[in-house]
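User: Here's a protein and a ligand (zinc ion). What would the complex look like?
Assistant: Let me lay out the input and then the predicted complex.
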Amino acid sequence: MNFKQTSRWLCLVATHCLVTGAIAQKTGPVKFTVSMAEPANHTFHVTMDWNAAGSDTTLLKLPDWQPGYYQLMDYASNIDKVVVKDGKGNTLPWVKSGKNGWAIATKGVHDLHAEYDVKTTRKFVATSYLDEEHGYLTPASLFMHEAGKLKTPSEVTIKPFDGWNWVATGLDSVPGKVFTYVAPDFDILYDSPLLVGNLEELPAFKVKGIPHRFIGYKLGNFDRVRLMSDIQKIVEKASALIGDIPYKHYTFIAIGPGQGGIEHLNSTTISFSGDQLNSRGWNGMLGFITHEYFHHYNVKRIRPIELGPFDYDQGSKTNMLWVSEGLTVYYEPVIMRAAGLMGEQELLDFFKKQISNVETKPGRLFQTLAQASAETWSDGPFGRTGDAVNKTISYYQKGPAVGLLFDLAIRHETKNKRSLDDVMRNLYQDFYIKKGRGFTEEELRATIEGVAGTKLDELFSYIYTTAEPDYKKYLGYAGLDIDVTTDKHFGTFEITQKASPSPLEREIFRSWSRGE
Ligand SMILES: [Zn+2]
């Protein structure tokens, strides 16, 4: 997630599974349709058909949040006119179960059909929205699942409003069926937003033979060829950094003017318009796109152990959003620099701004990075507001500042043989590829210190305590200087180059500043 304040198959094969040797039950994907016949009413209509076990009660659930936006959203409050029927068309009674559950009386019923309306009220990247021009579907807010059956596959058919010609999504389509898509389980479904309307696709590109598409709504006026050329360079450098491209296709889904983006396994939704390219600056928008793209590694695959399987009811808290978000911000300028899209001074200015954002706010004395990570669920994505605003920090700001210190420390300790890039590669290989899971805080620390070849107690005190980071010392490893004491009064935090750096300092600066 990125949201800048100023400028985020159980038996797939249709088969008969014998249950207790007596009851034959059909299983298969849950089939959804989404229609939008009256977009002016801002309401989607969803139908759901599936096979159930015939137990006394079947519980349907709707997630309360979506991964990537760490806030409980109360999506269930937008659900209306729920009707459930059996295979013969008989209406089945249901009662609400908690905030986001529907308990249906289903004794002896195996074929179920449900339908409901989903009201949309907010045009935002983490909420579904429908109007006369387009529809944006965040699946966590639209599609119910049977409690305990998140591994069931699903099939989704979109019925666009009359005259709309396109559906953009990272989901695989079903050959021969119009606007119909499959998800192997509900985690994938909830990770795969859809955009519907009269959309535009920019010239696609391939990296290592893998197609990357950019499809959007109301794109506006800008240099389309240049944008796609720049995004291709970003994808090439980011994927080279990790050394693997784990998806079969990737789609940048531009949902129209606004703020914010959310990362997914093989797509991202970004607020985007040509006008914003002008107001935010070309590189400001490219940095945002780099951030969302790099997230498919860092947080979707390189991830804290708490971020999967997800707790769709309570949220999934972790102390490590400083890694998932903060280091993703760190890699924005690093990848853009490597891609030749950013100058050396622009790189230094990026970190000057992050350090200034941290050091000029009192929250740094009250909240640690680990606390900011876990407490975002109650604080809000950017720290608290109102009276508590001065008691919190943003991991979007202190995360990249500390990430810089980690990178320079590793380079210093290893005589510039290794870097934070090695940490990211090792986390990807050791946990995502080999173990198929996320990492604990202890495993993260062991990985970082393993790459550095030494304990890094002081750096970890910047994560778990409010100790003031020794910027001067760590920047010095790259032949850089910063006057934090004086600058605190003026908020400048200019990063300069030392007059006579050592050969190692010069070498570290050279490779770090080129994104190598
Ligand atoms: Zn993010």
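Summary: Confidence is low (pLDDT under 50) at residues 4-25.
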